[in-house]
Design a protein that fits this description.
Layout: H1 5-36, H2 39-66, H3 69-92, H4 99-126, H5 132-160, H6 163-173, H7 175-182, H8 198-209, H9 212-227, H10 234-241, H11 245-265, H12 276-305, H13 319-350, H14 353-381, H15 389-408, H16 410-413
Helix pairs in contact: 1-2, 1-4, 1-5, 1-6, 1-7, 2-4, 2-8, 2-14, 3-4, 3-6, 3-7, 4-14, 5-6, 5-11, 5-13, 9-12, 9-13, 9-14, 9-15, 10-11, 11-13, 12-13, 12-15
Pfam families: MFS_3
Main location: membrane
Transmembrane segments: 12-34, 40-60, 72-93, 99-116, 137-159, 165-184, 218-243, 249-272, 284-307, 319-338, 359-380, 386-406
Length: 422
Amino acid sequence: MRESPAFARLWIGGSISGIGGQMTIVAVGLQIFAITGSTLAVSLVALFALPPMVVFGLYGGVLADSFDRRTVALVSAILAWTSTLGIAVFAWLDIRVVWPLYVLTTINAVAATVIGSTRQAITPRLLPTRLLPAASALSGISIGVMVTVGPALAGLLVATVGIPWTYTIDVVLFTAAFLGIFTLPRIIPEGERQSPGLESVMFGLRFLKTAPNIRMTFILDIIAMTFGQPRALFPAVGALLIGGGPVTVGILTAAGAVGTLVCSVFSGRIGHVRWQGRAVGRSIMAYGACILGFGIVLAVVTFGNAGAAVGQNIADANLPALVLASVFLAGSGAADNVSSIFRTTILQASVPDVMRGRLQGIFTVVVAGGPRLGDLYVGILALTGVLWFPPLLGGLVIIVAVGVILRLQHTFRHYDALDPTP
């Protein structure tokens, strides 16, 4: 941040606005669950948002490779802020239907996807290559703060002042994003630019076919997020299993971010790791082990409760189970952060600047879309009424699948940070 004040402003603005964004994610889940009483209805937020995110994530990368990246990020931020304002208005009007939430959260997710891919394409232009791992670690700190403070605030605010005020605070906090983006210099992509059309998208996808290391980072992250993202369970866990209601939901959601934050703060030596592909695989396997542990905790509580009443006050919650579940989720956050640092560094260091927007767009679609597939996976399996089954099965799938892939993919296993190749 000392070397690049522009990066510092972008990072600070994104961190502050991200806190509000995480508050809204938790509040939307709680609002939909309060209206419908259905975990599947909560997970449908993911289903409706995923196709537009894929389309606009890819096209957003094209825009970032075709125009001034500052302008692309600014327009997307305006759209995200407007959709958040709309969510707040519907909450204040007390409309007891869920379709407006699905529509507005989809618009918000699309805008956030474009902002994310554009911001990551901007970073290598603001910093030298040697500082890219440190920038990724700072992103981990940012995510840790956002997902620690945001959900915790959401749980407290929903339980005290209500959902409308929670959304309104997000509207105010999001204005910090404009400061970080507006003060950037113009950032025009370097190299031969293409017209922002379908051919440009296809060119980026053809480049990905020739980039096995980048491709593997996407595949491994999809596996981790599809089978290891239990957040759609949290409202039901707080209401029916561990107890504690909205406060428990906030704690469980924040726990992963605590692990991310602590890991990022002590991540200085990560920048010296040479075999980064191997590190990605091992960290994702550790992530799967933590999700498996979370499922085991839920299973033990399920069989231990056996029909007992569950209190909605945090004082009446099963505190030992809440602590153990939070520890495993914190471990998953730390492991995922290590994976994210290396995956981001591999992409930013090995991809030409004129292609970074498109590849970052695909990366952002994977990062944002994977958890939504995970929400859908959890929502479908939760129809069995067995809350512990999705994370327990998912953790096992991650460990086995990633272990097999690492054994078979020699190129990725031997990716060398001193000679970065896509």
